[in-house]
Design brief:
Strand order of the largest sheet: 1-2
Number of helices: 4
Shape: globular
Strand content: 5-15%
Number of domains: 2
Number of strands: 2
Order of helices and strands: HHHEEH
Length: 146
């Protein structure tokens, strides 16, 4: 919740007239929730400024020019995948698109009846994170030995 209020602002709202849910959860509800949880400084203008800072710092839509070593898993039946990165941007910005899975399926404990694509995705995620960990560890060790 803190990242939503201080960096992302990916709120689910009913402000748009082009949705079927009525007007029970407007953006103002989410902003008020941030203020109630984290203090009055988490108001609409502060959240907007924080999101702008996050996008500038991490690259926003130009993320591939400013960061490395990220794995972006997305499931094909997760509605959030429309906002996600579903194709790899580089060798260190790796998208893993998992057909037939929903939100965070790759994070659930493995089960015997998991689809083969989910099993493969977990192995690919583990491998990608392992490579980054090994490189960071190696570089840190080299710096300590120097």
């Amino acid at each position: 919740m803190f990242q939503t209020c201080s960096q992302f602002a990916f709120y689910q709202t009913s402000d748009s007239p082009s949705q079927p849910f009525g007007s029970l959860f407007p953006l103002s509800f989410s902003v008020q929730q941030c203020m109630d949880i984290f203090g009055s400084q988490f108001n609409n203008s502060a959240i907007a400024a924080a999101v702008k800072w996050t996008n500038v710092y991490y690259g926003g839509w130009n993320i591939s020019t400013s960061v490395t070593n990220i794995v972006f898993p997305n499931g094909s039946i997760d509605p959030w995948h429309a906002l996600g990165i579903t194709s790899s941007l580089s060798e260190t910005l790796i998208a893993i698109f998992i057909h037939g899975t929903a939100h965070c399926a790759n994070m659930y404990p493995a089960r015997a009846d998991d689809p083969a694509e989910l099993v493969s995705a977990r192995l690919n995620i583990t491998s990608a994170i392992g490579k980054v960990h090994a490189a960071v560890y190696s570089n840190t060790l080299a710096m300590l030995m120097y």
